[in-house]
Amino acid sequence: MDARILLVEDDASIREITKLGLEAAGFTVETAADGDDGLNRFRHSRPDLVLLDVMLPKRDGFEVCRAIRAESAVPVVMLTARTDTVDVVVGLESGADDYVTKPFEMPVLVARLRAALRRARHDEQSETVTLGDVTVDVLGHRATRDGEDLQLTPTEFRLLVELAQRPGQVFTRELLLEQVWGYGYLGDSRLVDVAVQRLRAKVEPDPSSPALIETVRGVGYRARR
Question: In this predicted structure, what is the pLDDT of residue 116?
Fold first, then answer.
């Protein structure tokens, strides 16, 4: 049996069509119509992934995502009807792993969900890497500075590991989409830029003048040697 998905969507027609499409792709799907019910169902059934609409009654998707992330590292993919970068920023800061814009094509959604599940199931090698004064315990999924946890989201942590393991290597946005999110052609480069911005805010001594994660103009990003 494939993964168990919790779909939290208030629009009944979208909820039903998405449920049928995901079940046809082999997923087991449980649904909820509002934020409170979604959070309750998550705590009761502990799904393998949460597909979460942004605009929900009672408790919006960002609030639900923050509550989930406070107690679990389960993959969370946000659904948004808007293409505003602000939704991407707030979603990632809330702890989401990815986002999909409505309207979406079912094969694209399925591919994005499978990529998120692959990332969650991937066993990282046991090692510790450093970037400046930041120490990254890969197996322990922990990044610290002077013994203090940096409180990174799962996506921020994967991005930090990818960059820190290869200091000096230039990563294009497309390569980071492939290495960190698990896909390239389905992605949106804004996702990378926003994630790097949020990561810098947590690891850089002065985020306004980044010294650990450098921008390579017109290409992408690299970690300082």
Answer: 87
**203 and 139 share one domain:** yes
Are 118 and 110 in contact by the 8 Å Cβ rule? The answer is: no
Cβ-proximal residues to 165 (8 Å cutoff; 6+ apart), any chain: 129
Q: Are 93 and 18 in a shared domain?
A: yes
Of 91, 121, 151, the residue that ends a domain is: 121
Q: How far is CA 58 from CA 38, 130, 143, in A?
A: 10, 43, 34
Amino acid residing at 25? A
Pairing status of strand 128-131 against strand 134-137: antiparallel
CB 111 within 8 A of CB 99: no
Q: What angle do CA 38, 29, 36 make, to 5 degrees?
A: 5
User: Quick check: helix, strand or coil at residue 95?
Assistant: coil
- Whether pTM exceeds 0.70: no
